[in-house]
Every structure is written in C-alpha cells, then in structure tokens.
Amino acid sequence: MAIxxxxxxxxxxxRIAFKLREAGLTVxxxxxxxxxxxxxxxxxxxxxxxxxxxxxxxxxxxDGAGIGSAMAxxxxxxxxxxxCYDISSARNSREHNHANxxxxxxxxxxxSLAWQIVEAWLATPWGEGRHARRxxxxxxxxxxxxxxxx
Length: 150
Prior knowledge:
Number of strands: 5
CATH class: Alpha Beta
Distance between the termini: 36 Å
Shape: globular
Radius of gyration: 15 Å
Largest sheet: 5 strands, parallel
Strand order of the largest sheet: 2-1-3-5-4
Structural class: alpha/beta
Number of domains: 1
Low-confidence stretches: none
CATH superfamily: Sugar-phosphate isomerase, RpiB/LacA/LacB
CATH architecture: 3-Layer(aba) Sandwich
Order of helices and strands: EHEHEHEHEHH
C-alpha cells in the first residue's frame, strides 16, 4: 500500500500508516515527513506512480480536502483515484469504479471516520459485471488529448 500526504494530511497519514502496518500490510510511505508546507500534487503523483507501476496494489493520499490530490493522482495513467468522505462512497468507489487510489480530506473528517473509510475501501471487492465496460471506458481515456475526446 502506497501512502502519501501534504502538510495538511501528514498527521492523519502517520496514523493511517501505523494502523495499516498493524493490520499486516506493507506500507510504502511516499512522504511528506513533517507539517512543513509542501505541494500536494507531488505526493499524489508519487503514490499514483507506485500504483500504476504495480509496485503497490493500491494507494492512499491525504491532504486538507482530498480534492486536489484526487485531481493530481488521476493525471497518472492507470490511476483511478476517488475522494471518499464516508463509508458508502468508499464502497461505491471500489465496487463500481474499481478505484485503486483513495483520497481523504484530513480537514474534513476525523481520524476515526478516516480509518472506517479505509477499512471499508480495502474490504470492498471490485464488482465487475455491468461496471466493467464503464471502467474500461475510463481507462481508455488515459493519455488522450482534448481533441481526441470530442
């Protein structure tokens, strides 16, 4: 599991990484290592690259709201990042959208809810079936230029 955060998500990243290790998962920490101000795209892309390259099966990125990290991670071909803010969105992102990167907003949810979201996200299998063709269409968009999407 790759995990990364900016300064706003650093403390929550440390807690989530600890709990993941406690649960027996191998954790690749993509930074940051303090609460000193940094730029979330750097860490979202670092996590995304670990997942896209197959070095990690999934990833988690945490910033203040989770929105920017989702946007940045989704620029990495092969990444399907989802901002989740409750257990239902976590389950849906895995079952319906085959999300491989979870983003969280440390400024919007507490540690307890964040861990519940992570647990639900990890426990929910990919539903395939009717969702497979939709996810294939999302994956086919990787690397397209604007004129190719018309």
